[in-house]
């Protein structure tokens, strides 16, 4: 055994200059810009060749940095305390707290004992697979990966590592779930039918029926709905302005710049809000409140009201507040809205994302093709100009 261990420590030359074999692994030997000898381990000969070529090229360009020996857990804990974000907006303190919580819960237990310079893309992919293997949602996996990506990007900028092993890692997860607050990713949410909604409302306490109807007609996120104030609502114009949300114990702007938006109200919904409006204390008062007049606690509302009502109505599968938002989007598509209109009403970041979420709501039947009459260049030009004029008139009519 001793002889075998001794043999495994001996560097054996290979045909490639600067690459040696040690037991079943390889060692790359090169000199940095100061002439100091460096060694790095590799699992395969191909990996060793790549490492040596990259290091020599970096030295030649004057871009070589000494590889970091610091462990991931040590770097992560120091980094999260001082990280200021990668945009001009900076980093919210609640985001920093969330990053720290997720690093301690997920990334540090998995990657913590590894040297920063030794972590490869495959290790980050293994980490993603590990988190996803717990059966959590795609959104949860993304949240676990987010601080890891930011951490490695910062480490590259600081010269602690040569390349970002998380740069090309993507999240691919099949399963979606709701979190404790009844929220879920927009990507896969149970599609509630109109009959199921009717049953849900019938089984809900009367004081909550207007609130749940409001969610299905406006598509607001639960955090946006419980922070809505009367100054944001114009019942005369039947419009409401979404500018804030209540998230993790504090009021903040919606989740993206697209979240600030105007949302239409149906005439029926505006009429249903009039009695609440008449009893308001001030324009700064919350539109919807808990039974004792305070702020709605969304997880409590879901566990005590929404889930029992869904069960009593015989609705199968998970039902959360996001289910009602999803129904709003499906209704708008069914009413003939285009993807851009639905995107703006829901506050999505792009119409393409909205289409991907609501592809099930689109008509599977292709319309009959329409043959345009062949009238030559003059006829085609006239048709184009007529279409432009009609479109301009429609835009003007809407503006008025």
Task: Please name the CATH topology of the largest domain.
Answer: hpI Integrase, Chain A
Helix content: 40-55%
Multimer state: single chain
Q: In total, how many domains does the architecture comprise?
A: 3
The major sheet is characterized as:
4 strands, antiparallel
Mean pLDDT value: 80
Beta-strand proportion: 5-15%
Radius of gyration: 29 Å
Span between N and C termini?
A: 89 Å
Question: Based on DSSP secondary structure assignment, what is the total number of beta strands?
Answer: 9
The CATH class name of the largest domain reads: Mainly Alpha
CATH architectural arrangement of the largest domain: Orthogonal Bundle
- Provide the spatial order of strands within the biggest beta sheet: 1-2-3-4
Classification by helices and strands: alpha+beta
List keywords for this structure.
400 residues; alpha+beta; DNA polymerase, domain 1; hpI Integrase, Chain A; 4-stranded antiparallel beta sheet; 9 strands; disordered N terminus; disordered C terminus
Descriptive notes:
By secondary structure, this protein is α+β, with helices and mostly antiparallel strands. The protein has three domains: 2-61, no CATH class; 72-157, Tyrosine recombinase, N-terminal domain (DNA polymerase, domain 1); 194-361, Intergrase catalytic core (hpI Integrase, Chain A, Orthogonal Bundle). It has 15 helices and nine strands. The strands form three sheets. It has a four-stranded antiparallel sheet with strand order 1-2-3-4, covered by helices on one side. A three-stranded antiparallel sheet has the order 5-6-9. Strands 7-8 form a two-stranded antiparallel ribbon. A hairpin with a 5-residue loop joins strand 1 (12-13) and strand 2. Residues 1-7, 173-187 and 383-400 have low confidence and may be disordered.
């Amino acid at each position: 055994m001793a002889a075998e261990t001794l043999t495994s420590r001996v560097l054996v030359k290979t045909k490639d200059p600067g690459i040696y074999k040690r037991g079943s692994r390889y060692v790359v030997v090169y000199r940095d810009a100061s002439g100091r000898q460096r060694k790095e381990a590799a699992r395969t000969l191909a990996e060793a060749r790549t490492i040596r070529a990259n290091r020599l090229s970096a030295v030649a360009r004057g871009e070589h940095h000494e590889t970091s020996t610091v462990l991931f857990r040590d770097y992560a804990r120091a980094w999260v305390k001082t990280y200021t974000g990668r945009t001009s907006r900076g980093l919210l303190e609640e985001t920093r707290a969330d990053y720290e919580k997720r690093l301690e819960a997920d990334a540090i237990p998995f990657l913590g004992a590894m040297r920063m310079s030794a972590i490869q893309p495959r290790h980050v992919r293994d980490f993603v697979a590990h988190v996803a293997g717990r059966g959590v949602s795609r959104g949860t996996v993304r949240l676990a990966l987010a601080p890891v990506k930011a951490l490695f990007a910062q480490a590259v900028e600081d010269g602690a590592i040569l390349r970002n092993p998380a740069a090309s890692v993507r999240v691919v997860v099949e399963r979606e779930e709701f979190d404790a607050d009844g929220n879920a990713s927009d990507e896969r949410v149970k599609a509630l039918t109109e009959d199921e909604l009717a049953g849900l409302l019938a089984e809900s306490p009367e004081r909550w029926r207007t609130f749940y109807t409001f969610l299905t007609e406006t598509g607001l996120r639960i955090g946006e709905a419980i922070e809505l104030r009367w100054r944001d609502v114009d019942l005369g114009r039947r419009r409401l302005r979404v500018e804030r949300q209540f998230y993790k114990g504090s009021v903040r702007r919606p989740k993206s710049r697209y979240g600030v938006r105007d949302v239409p109200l149906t005439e029926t919904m505006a009429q249903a809000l009039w009695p609440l409006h008449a009893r308001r204390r001030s324009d700064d008062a919350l539109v919807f409140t808990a039974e004792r007049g305070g702020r709605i606690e969304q997880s409590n509302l879901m566990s005590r009201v929404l889930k029992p009502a869904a069960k009593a109505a015989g609705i199968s599968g998970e039902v959360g507040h996001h289910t009602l938002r999803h129904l709003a989007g499906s209704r708008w598509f069914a009413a003939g809205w285009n993807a851009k209109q639905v995107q703006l009403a829901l506050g999505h970041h792009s119409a393409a994302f909205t289409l991907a979420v609501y592809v099930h709501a689109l008509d599977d039947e292709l319309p009959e093709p329409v043959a345009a009459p062949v009238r030559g260049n003059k006829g085609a030009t006239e048709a184009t100009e007529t279409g432009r004029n009609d479109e301009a008139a429609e835009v003007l009519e809407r503006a008025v």
